[in-house]
From TrEMBL:
Topology class, membrane: Multi-pass membrane protein
Domain annotation ABC transmembrane type-2: ranges: 23-252
Name of the protein described by the UniProt record: Transport permease protein
Transmembrane portions of the chain: 30-47, 59-78, 104-132, 144-165, 171-192, 204-222, 228-249
Subcellular location field: Cell inner membrane; Membrane
Swiss-Prot/TrEMBL keywords: Cell membrane, Membrane, Transmembrane, Transmembrane helix, Transport
Stated family: Belongs to the ABC-2 integral membrane protein family.
Source organism (scientific name): Vreelandella vilamensis
Superkingdom: Bacteria
UniProt-listed PANTHER family: INNER MEMBRANE TRANSPORT PERMEASE YADH, INNER MEMBRANE TRANSPORT PERMEASE YADH-RELATED
Length: 257
C-alpha cells in the first residue's frame, strides 16, 4: 500500500469506530455523564462541604480534574477492548489481517477510535462539571496534551486486553480488578501528601497518579509530583505498550489458533 492508500485505510477504520459508539450513544456517551454528575453531587457538594479545602482549593474544584480523567481513562479503555474483541469474536478481524493494511494501521485505527470516545466523554463530563463549579485552566496546552496522551495510553491497554481475552467476561477482569482500584487510589479524591511516607512511596508506583496530577496541575497549578517526570512516565508507558501491542498483533496473539 502506498501512503495515500494507507491514510485512507486508517481514516476508514477510525470513522467506523467513531460511528460505532456514536450510533449507540445512550449506552456509550450518556451513562458516564450521569455517573459523574452523581460523583459531583455526592462527593463534591454533600461530602466536600464537610471536608473543606484540599491543597488550598475547595474540595469540588480539587476532585473535578480527577473525575474528568477517570471518565477519559475508563471510556478509552473499554471502547477499544469491547470493539476489538467483538471484531475478533465475529472473525472480521481476520479479514483485516489478510488485507494489505499494515498492522500498525489496524492498531492505530482502533486506538484513535478509543481516544475519540474517551475525549468526547471527557468533554461531556467537563461541561457537566460547569453546573457545579467554575473551571479555570492555569496551563491549557498542558491540560490538552496530558488528556490526549492518557487517552492514547489506555486505548492501547484496551487493545492488549482484547487480544488476550478468550471470552466476553475476560474483558471486564482488568477494569474491575486492576483499573478501577488504581483509579480510585490514583489521587482522584485526595492528595497523596495526606498519606504516611510509606504509602506515598507505594502510591508512586501507580501510573494513574501521574496522569491525574499532571491534569490537575493543568487546571489548578498544583501537583503532588514533578510534572516533567510525570510526562516522561506517561510517554514511556505509551511507547512500551504500543510496541507490545504491535508485536502481539504481528504474531497473531489471540487471533490465530
Amino acid at each position: 500500500m502506498n501512503a495515500t492508500q494507507t491514510l485512507i485505510a486508517l481514516w476508514t477504520l477510525v470513522v467506523k469506530e467513531v460511528k460505532r459508539f456514536t450510533r449507540i450513544w445512550p449506552q456509550t456517551l450518556l451513562p458516564p455523564s450521569i455517573t459523574m454528575a452523581m460523583y459531583f453531587i455526592i462527593f463534591g457538594n454533600l461530602i466536600g462541604s464537610r471536608i473543606g479545602a484540599m491543597d488550598g482549593f475547595s474540595y469540588m474544584d480539587f476532585i473535578v480534574p480527577g473525575l474528568i480523567m477517570m471518565a477519559v481513562i475508563t471510556n478509552s479503555y473499554s471502547n477499544v477492548a469491547s470493539s476489538f474483541f467483538s471484531n475478533k469474536f465475529q472473525r472480521s478481524i481476520e479479514e483485516m489481517m489478510v488485507s494489505p493494511m499494515p498492522n500498525w494501521v489496524i492498531l492505530s485505527g482502533f486506538v484513535l477510535g478509543g481516544m475519540a470516545r474517551g475525549l468526547w466523554v471527557g468533554l461531556i463530563v467537563t461541561v457537566v462539571s460547569l453546573f457545579f463549579t467554575r473551571l479555570s485552566m492555569e496551563h491549557p496546552l498542558l491540560t490538552v496534551l496530558v488528556v490526549v496522551l492518557t487517552s492514547a495510553l489506555f486505548s492501547v491497554g484496551g487493545f492488549i486486553n482484547a487480544l488476550l481475552a478468550n471470552k466476553f467476561d475476560d474483558i471486564s477482569i482488568v477494569p474491575t480488578f486492576i483499573l478501577t482500584p488504581l483509579t480510585y487510589l490514583g489521587g482522584v479524591f485526595y492528595s497523596i501528601s495526606m498519606l504516611p511516607d510509606f504509602w506515598q512511596g507505594v502510591s508512586m508506583l501507580n501510573p494513574i497518579l501521574y496522569m491525574v496530577n499532571v491534569f490537575r496541575y493543568g487546571f489548578l497549578g498544583v501537583s503532588d509530583i514533578p510534572v516533567g517526570w510525570a510526562l516522561m512516565a506517561i510517554l514511556s508507558f505509551i511507547v512500551v505498550l504500543f510496541t507490545v501491542a504491535l508485536k502481539m498483533l504481528e504474531r497473531g496473539k489471540g487471533i490465530r489458533s
